């Protein structure tokens, strides 16, 4: 369960051209920067994740980047590197299945 606010970019709900990615409000009269109620929260250090959850995949497992079968580590989920070709990727997936390792981008 996520208790963090969405950190909406200013004017996102009014203007279609304004993107989703966060930008810090810097205007001198900006209500969001001044933290008026109803204008959206600003990211702060207190919203950070717990130390034991940092660096984990959303499924809750640690992940390791694998470029070969040797890169498969027990206890970690594997993410196959982008530069790996089709044949080697198939080998890695097969080896991971035999070892019981989850492949995140198979």
Protein architecture, described:
The protein has 106 residues and is largely without helices or strands. The chain has two domains: 1-48, no CATH class; 53-99, no CATH class. The chain contains one helix and two strands, in the order ββα. It has one helix spanning 86-99, and strands at 63-66, 77-80. Strands 1-2 form a two-stranded parallel sheet. The mean pLDDT is 91.
Provide the fold topology.
Layout: E1 63-66, E2 77-80, H1 86-99
Parallel strand pairs: 1-2
Low-confidence stretches: none
Considering DSSP H and I runs of 4 or more, what fraction of the residues is helical? 10-25%
Strand content: 5-15%
Number of helices: 1
Q: How many domains?
A: 2
> Termini distance?
27 Å
Structural class, by secondary structure, is: little secondary structure
What is the number of E strands? 2
User: Sheet bearing the most strands, described?
Assistant: 2 strands, parallel
Coarse shape: elongated
Topology order in helix (H) and strand (E) letters = EEH
Radius of gyration: 21 Å
Strand order in space, largest sheet: 1-2
Overall pLDDT metric: 91
């Amino acid at each position: 369960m996520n208790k963090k606010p969405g950190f909406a970019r200013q004017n996102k709900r009014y203007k279609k051209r304004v993107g989703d990615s966060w930008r810090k409000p810097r205007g001198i009269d900006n209500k969001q920067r001044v933290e008026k109620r109803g204008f959206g929260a600003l990211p702060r250090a207190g919203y950070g994740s717990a130390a034991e959850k940092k660096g984990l995949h959303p499924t809750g497992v640690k992940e390791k980047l694998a470029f070969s079968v040797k890169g498969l580590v027990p206890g970690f989920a594997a993410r196959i590197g982008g530069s790996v070709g089709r044949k080697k990727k198939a080998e890695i997936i097969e080896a991971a299945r035999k070892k019981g390792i989850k492949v995140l981008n198979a």
